[in-house]
């Protein structure tokens, strides 16, 4: 049992879910623990099973429909922040997102749900009729 690689190990932490109003900017939180630079790591973000964002060797690939709307906070990568920023939130963006980080032989994943927060007028009106 070799423990020589233990100092290279990391875990991913995230929130269970976040909420946003339509049109807002929302951040899907995901962090390396302990704080480890993610600059040289491969970072993928999936919506359900579809890869919507890939960061590898400093290069970025965005899935159609997400182009120009998703990004990492690149200045935070050094501190292990691999959160995904999504601008112009749409109802169709709701769902489960998975952050995957790969470094060498290690691959870690964390999931976060994205919900519509709903404003003051989001409830369906209820009528009671007296008969």
TrEMBL record:
Boundaries of every Ig-like domain copy: 23-113
Main location: membrane
Cellular compartment(s): Membrane
Keyword Disulfide bond carried by entry: yes
Record-level Gene Ontology MF annotations: signaling receptor binding
GO biological process: regulation of cytokine production; regulation of leukocyte cell-cell adhesion; regulation of T cell activation; T cell receptor signaling pathway
Classification via InterPro entries: Ig-like_dom, Ig-like_dom_sf, Ig-like_fold, Ig/MHC_CS, Ig_sub, Ig_V-set, IgSF_BTN/MOG
UniProt KW Cell inner membrane keyword: no
SUPFAM superfamilies reported for this sequence: Immunoglobulin (SSF48726)
Keywords, in A-Z order: Disulfide bond, Glycoprotein, Immunoglobulin domain, Membrane, Signal
GO cellular component, one term: external side of plasma membrane
Cited PANTHER family: BUTYROPHILIN (PTHR24100), BUTYROPHILIN-LIKE PROTEIN 9 (PTHR24100:SF130)
Protein name: Ig-like domain-containing protein
Lineage start: Eukaryota, Metazoa, Chordata, Craniata, Vertebrata
GN (gene name): LOC121846334
